[in-house]
Design goal:
By secondary structure, the chain is an alpha+beta fold. Helices cover 35% and strands 14% of the residues. The longest helix has 18 residues.
Length: 207
């Protein structure tokens, strides 16, 4: 599967205020639990989960806090690149669920955040194993905003809540609530509009 690295254009939702060391461990030769992201295992797991979600080849993008000069011609990060921060956003087009986006800046190391995303994808897939989320409900909170929507999630909420983007920034919960009321299918709203509001709310970290 083809991968590309791109600089983060805008962060989705709130940033982690206090990042921490990752919890990923493995036993070393003496039987101790050593800190280890195990990048090869991470990539293997991620490739498997993307395949299970039927990720469309060529749509998988890993956004990182780097500059264009840190990216090689083949689309991957240079070995000597030093990201400004550890945050990553994995985006791709799923043939089953449409565009999906997974941001993570929980841990101090960007590779650990990629592993966290891979494990999250695995966990979400397991939800359906027990008869819950049989129709992909667990992925709805991770829907990426359609490329046709300009201005980002604040603009989406502002449009449906009939307010300014600054109003959304000042009181996102109130404005998202208004947008949800305006687009709710049971109140005469359209399902595509409701889905846009849900995606924008997720991007802003509001449930």
């Amino acid at each position: 599967m083809n991968w590309r690295v791109k600089p983060v254009d805008r962060w989705l939702g709130p940033r982690t205020e206090e990042r921490r060391d990752h919890p990923f461990r493995k036993k070393n030769a003496r039987g101790w639990m050593a800190s280890d992201v195990n990048w090869s295992a991470t990539m293997t797991l991620l490739e498997h989960e993307l395949a299970m979600l039927e990720a469309v080849d060529g749509t998988v993008i890993l956004q990182m806090e780097v500059d264009d000069r840190d990216i090689r011609k083949d689309g991957w990060i240079r070995a000597n690149a030093k990201p400004r921060g550890p945050g990553v956003i994995l985006t791709f087009e799923s043939a089953i669920h449409g565009p999906l986006s997974y941001p993570c800046d929980t841990f101090l190391d960007w590779q650990a955040n990629v592993r966290a995303v891979a494990l999250a994808l695995e966990a979400l897939r397991k939800v359906a194993r027990y008869g819950v989320g049989k129709h992909g409900e667990q992925y709805r909170g991770w829907k990426a905003l359609p490329a046709t929507i300009s201005g980002g999630p604040h603009a989406v909420i502002a449009r449906f809540a009939e307010c300014s983007e600054d109003d959304v920034r000042r009181n996102p919960e109130k404005r998202i609530r208004a947008a949800r009321i305006a687009t709710h299918p049971d109140r005469g709203g359209e399902r595509p509009d409701w889905d846009q509001v849900a995606a924008a709310a997720a991007a802003l970290g509001v449930r």
